[in-house]
Every structure is written in C-alpha cells, then in structure tokens.
Design brief:
The structure is a single chain. The chain has one domain. It has 2 helices and 4 strands. It has a two-stranded antiparallel sheet. The protein has a two-stranded antiparallel sheet with strand order 3-4. The protein is elongated, with a radius of gyration of 20 Å. It starts with 8 loop residues before the first helix and ends in an 11-residue tail after the last strand. Bound molecules: zinc ion. Zinc ion (ZN) binds next to loops.
Length: about 120
C-alpha cells in the first residue's frame, strides 16, 4: 500500500466501520470465552459479564452496520470527479477530499464542477 497523507473520507469511514465490526465480534467472542471458562475461571459462569460483553459487541456491530449504510448512501449522492493523477473516477465528500485510488488531494474548483448539486 502506498503511503499517502490523504485518505478518501469514504474509505476512512469504511475502514473504521470494518474495524468496529471486527472488534465487536472479538468482544462478543471474549464474553462467551470467559463465560465458558476458556480464559481462566475468575469470570466463569458470570452471566452479568457475558451479558455486558454481548450487548457491547452487538452495539458495536450495529454502529458499524449504520456506518456502512451511511457510506453507501453518501457514495450514491456525492459528486463524481475524475482524478487528475490516476484518471479514475472517484467520489468527493464535501469540498475537499482525496482520491479513493491514489490518495491525490482533490478540491472542488470551478474547473471541476460536479454535475450534481451537493
Ligand atoms: Zn487518483
């Protein structure tokens, strides 16, 4: 992966949602593993601990699902511009964003007016 200072906002949101989902699964699994006594006996058969962990993991997964939905909705409504560096069509969030493919910083100027109104 290329080192770039700029990461597309949609990409950043998706990366964040992805990690949130993964952590949620790990939290839920840990809750069960402690309950079953795989990871020591001090929290074994602790219903409260397992319930808290399951709810926490579930909430994190719900949040990341919502984030995925937002990133999907945003990417259908955001204006498309052609990247000047790599020539691919990328989507812009707000007035300043970066190319999803090469990380080229992009700004909405008069020359690159999007077809859709933001
Ligand atoms: Zn690009």
């Amino acid at each position: 992966m290329k080192k770039t200072d700029h990461i597309s906002k949609i990409k950043r949101l998706r990366t964040w949602a992805n990690w949130n989902m993964a952590i949620g699964i790990v939290v839920m699994y840990l809750g069960y593993a402690f309950f079953a006594g795989y990871l020591g006996s001090f929290l074994e058969r602790s219903y409260i601990f397992m319930t808290v962990m399951l709810i926490l993991g579930f909430v994190m997964m719900m949040i990341s699902t919502v984030l995925f939905m937002i990133s999907g909705m945003v990417s259908t409504t955001s204006p498309q511009v052609e990247c000047p560096r790599c020539g691919k069509t990328t989507k812009m969030l707000g007035k300043e964003d970066a190319c999803m493919f090469c990380g080229q910083p992009l700004t909405l100027s008069d020359e690159e007016q999007p077809k859709q109104q933001a």
